[in-house]
Every structure is written in structure tokens, then in C-alpha cells.
Amino acid sequence: MGARLDSAASGTANWVDERTSIGSFVKFIARKVFPDHWSFMLGEIALYSFIVLLISGVFLTAFFVPSMGFVTYDGPLETMQGVEMSEAFASTLHMSFEVPGGLLMRQIHHWAALLFTAAIVTHMARVFFTGAFRKPRELNWLVGFTLMILSLAAGFSGYSLPDDVLSGNGLRIIEGVTRSIPILGEYISYWIFGGEFPGEIIIPRLFTMHILLVPGLILGLIALHLFLVFLHKHTQYPGPGRTHKNVVGLPLFPVYTAKAGGFFFVVFGVIALVAAVFTINPVWNYGPYDPSPVSAGTQPDWYILFVDGALRLMPGWLFDVIPMEWELWGYTLSWNILIPAVIVPGLFFGFLAFYPWIEAWATGDRGEKHVLDRPRNVPVRTGLGVALIIFYVILVLEGANDIIATLFHLSLNDLTLFLRVGIFVLPVLGFLITRRICFGLQRKDRELVLHGKETGRIVRHEHGEYIEVHEPLTEHERWILVSYDDIAPLEIAPEYNERGVRRKGYRWDRFKQRLSRFYFEHRVSPVTPEELESASHAHH
Questions:
Q1: Helix, strand, or coil here: 248?
Q2: Mutual orientation of helices 344-363 and 379-399 as an angle, nearest 10°?
Q3: pLDDT for residue 18
Q4: Which helix (H) or strand (E) holds 217?
């Protein structure tokens, strides 16, 4: 029986290969080498979370009714008996309390969505701090950035579908943000909601966007992302034998495939465990959407919370003198909404999207890079990353300012005033402190390379001198500490030539020089072979 089965399988495989030539492709993929490092699992977590989202989403789609038509609730939840609500909200309650496993699947779907976005953001942070976005991976950075934006769109559209008070208020905020856009805002709002807010079509439109448009785009971009990873080969951390022209790691099959398969079930199991233990988005506590109640202590999910925090942080008057709402030619220009909810996120995400080109232009480093940076060896980039994180965290904290003030018995106004100042001061301090820490770590690395590790063992020479014995680093350790580029600031031609004529383009060159100095004027050079040899002779 076993021999027949093997013969049938091999015959089928041979038949398919003769007609598709898939054998050579499978052989090529199976031999693809991947470096082995724990930080590469962040991207896998995002992928597996999305698979969980698809699986749980198919289940939920079978029971959710994307309609804003009104019904009177007559189900097992006593607190909602006789309450008029939309069919969307009623179907959410039906799914939660009457469908076997419905509440668990809802919570698995919600927790997986949070993990999906968190994994993408953390993965992008790893790519940013290690320089994995450099040539030739700039396009893949844009693909990952777009995936992050789409994850926000998927999360918000799904979060708004139950049509409860919390999601309805979130839609109301988005409607206000949209209408703050000069001239076009009102037309965009009418197009989104089909008329005056809330209209009767926003839930069906969000449903189509949530289950069809956004997932389709995410699937396409994931495929493109993986294709570019295979095309450019995987990045790797510095170490002996690892260069910009090779990859040191394990083949995709069978080692990496087995690890990835097992890791998927670990991620799925953790999400299921969290969903079974911790309640999230209990819409029955909020009730169906009604524009009249506004409750305190309710915030959107963390990935949208920064917009809410920016809106709370923005004052209605600037220095109690300049109003933040202007009347111009019959139009109301709401700077107190436009700046925090449109301009600031636009600048923040725009800087992130185009940072690979900004850094390449500022540093002049346009060569292909396949070996990653240690964050300490690129102090300015690391400092900028920390500053961006601090900026984002301040907005998130402000989005929960009422809860923080209540929990720690603080004044809400004082907390908001502190964060208004901190949004300008703390990111700068974070940048300066982080850059200084990186310089300190680099100097420590130089000491280790030149003098080795301290052993604590004291030896007395014949002439009476006491010295501490240092243990030299291994070749692997030394390679990691010295293998980074020493880039000097840009030098430009003088402002005036030998005839005393001012050179064209000098101002632009001067700007590029200042930017280059910002990156490289303060730096710690790696240990050169000459320095290492001199230190070795001194120790001997």
C-alpha cells in the first residue's frame, strides 16, 4: 500500500512538473537562505496575525448584518430589551450572545487586529533603527509603510461597524476632521456619508471597505513585500563572513519552514488565549449609537488614539490672544482641528515614508547595503527614531488624559499644559540623550577592541608593577564592533572662486553641508587595523 501511494504521489508530481516546470522553482525557493535572528520574527507575527484576521473574519461575516435600518431588540440581553437600534448593532449582540463561539471569535478578531498593527509598527521600527530600508530596499519600505496605513484603515473601519456609541462618536470625530479641510472638506464628508452625518449608508460602505477593499490591498502588498524580500535577499546582522554580497543563514526548507509553521500556531494560540481571558470592546455596555450621550473614559484603539490626543492637545486660542478659528470669505477655517488631525499626521507620516531618500540625500551614501547597522553606530538616526516615538507616545497619553488624571489624582488642565510643552521639549531631549548614549557605547566598544575585556585578575611583574590582565576579544566579537562605515561630513568648494566671483549653487551646497554635519560632525570612528596592531604590541 505504501509503495503504491509513493508511486502515485511521484507520478502526480512528475505530471505537474512536466507541464508547469514548477520543480525548478520549488528547488530554488527551498534553497533560499534566510538569516536566523529573533527580530525577524516581528514581520512573521504581522503575517500570522493577518491570517488569523482572515479566518475569524470569514466566521463573523456570516452573522453580521451591515445595515443601518432600525429594529427593536428582542434577545437574551435583558438590559437591551425593547431598545431601538440598527441592524448592525443588533446582529453584533446576536453574534455575541446567541451564536456558539461568536463572542470568542469577535474577540479573537479584535485582538488579532491590535497585534497585526502593533507587529507592523514594531517591525518598521526594527527596520528603521537597523537601516534595513537602505538601497535597494527603499521600495519595500514604502510597501511596509503602506501596509501600516492600510492596517489603520482596516482597524478603524472594522471598529466602526458595530454602530455603538463609542464607534459612532469616533465616526463623528472623523466627520469633523474631514469637514475642517478647506473648501473640499464638506464635499468629501457628503460623499463619505451620503449626505448629512450619520446618513444611512456609512455602515454598508465601511463593511465593503473592511472585508473587500482593504484586505485585498493588504494581500497584494504582502505578496509584493515577500517578492521583494526574495528578490533583494534578506538583510543580516554584522558578523564574521557576512558582507554586502552574501547571506549567511539557514535554507528555507526544511529548517526555516518548520520553525515558521510552528510559530504560526504559537501566535494563533496566544491570540486565542488572550481573547478567551480578556474582554475587549463590550459594545453592550455602550449601547447603540446616539449622538446625545458623550461618556468620559472611553478612547479608541491605540493606533487611532494619537489623533484623539492631538485634538485634545490643541488649544482653542494661541497664547490666549490668537483664535484658532478664522472666518475667511464666508468659510470657517478651523486650525484647531486642521493642524492636529490633518497637518501634523501628514507631516509625521510623510517624514516616515520618505526617510530612506532623506537620509541617502543627506549622507550621500547611495551604495547597496545588505548588512544591518547597530543602532549605536548611527547615533543621529537612532536619536531621530527615539524622538518620533516620544512624540507619538505624548499624543497617546494626551488621548487618555482623563483616565490618567483620574487614576493619579492629577489636574486635567495641568496635565494637558505639561504635555503641550512636552510635545516640543521632550522629543528634542530624547534625541540629544539618545545620541549621547550612542556615543558612549561606541567609545566603550573602542575600549573593548583595543584593550579587551576586564578579567579582574591582577598580576605583579618582576619589577613590582601591578597590572590587570585583559582577555582579548574573539574574532566574531571584534568583527561586530569594528564593521561599520566611518563617513566624514561633506566638504564643499569655497563660496568665491579665484577671481572673486560668487559660485552658483553655493547656498544649496551649504545647506547640504550643514545637513551632513548634523549626521556626521560628531562621530566615533571605528578602530583601524593600525590602531589594533599598536594596541596589541603595547599589551605584549
A1: coil
A2: 180
A3: 66
A4: helix 214-232
